[in-house]
Design a protein that fits this description.
With 147 residues, this protein is α+β, with helices and mostly antiparallel strands. The chain has three helices and six strands.
Length: 147
């Protein structure tokens, strides 16, 4: 199996981005903050599939990023096209853990892997709330689509 095929089979929501010249820093590689922006874009794509983006929630409950990290395996450079994938790897009572990965089309390999802990938050009371059954079912349908 080719590396991108393996990547495609693992990450259930994916976006393709172009590495921009301005993404790089003085050391001539993509600045570390950009990886978190790439992860954010994939996370938002996942949230859009779940239907939890934007205003209009009746109960004012929406996801919020509680914690994030990144393991850099290989530096990215301009020019390159990347595929950023995400999936839910753990479900918890008040949220879930997402895994992200960035695949470089230039290097033909995964260049970084990260996670983001998501908590469901009531934006009126600023308290975390339990993940409802409907949202869990939507996550399961995304995750089961490829498995």
């Amino acid at each position: 199996m080719k590396p991108l095929e393996k990547f495609n089979n693992k990450y259930h929501v994916q976006i393709e981005l172009t590495v921009q010249w301005g993404d790089m820093d003085a050391f001539n590689h993509v600045n570390n903050v950009m990886y978190f922006r790439y992860f954010e874009s994939a996370r938002i794509a996942y949230f859009e599939k779940l239907g939890v983006m934007g205003k209009g929630s009746k109960d004012n409950v929406a996801p919020i990023l509680a914690e994030t990290n990144c393991r850099y395996k290989l530096p990215l450079n301009y020019p390159d096209t990347i595929t950023v994938g995400t999936r839910v790897i753990e479900k918890h009572s008040h949220g879930f853990l997402m895994e992200y990965a960035i695949y470089s089309h230039h290097y033909k390999k995964t260049t970084s892997i990260g996670t983001g802990r998501i908590v469901m938050l009531n934006y009126s009371s600023h308290e975390k709330v339990a993940v409802d059954e409907q949202l869990l079912n939507k996550i399961n349908s995304i995750e089961d689509a490829i498995n």
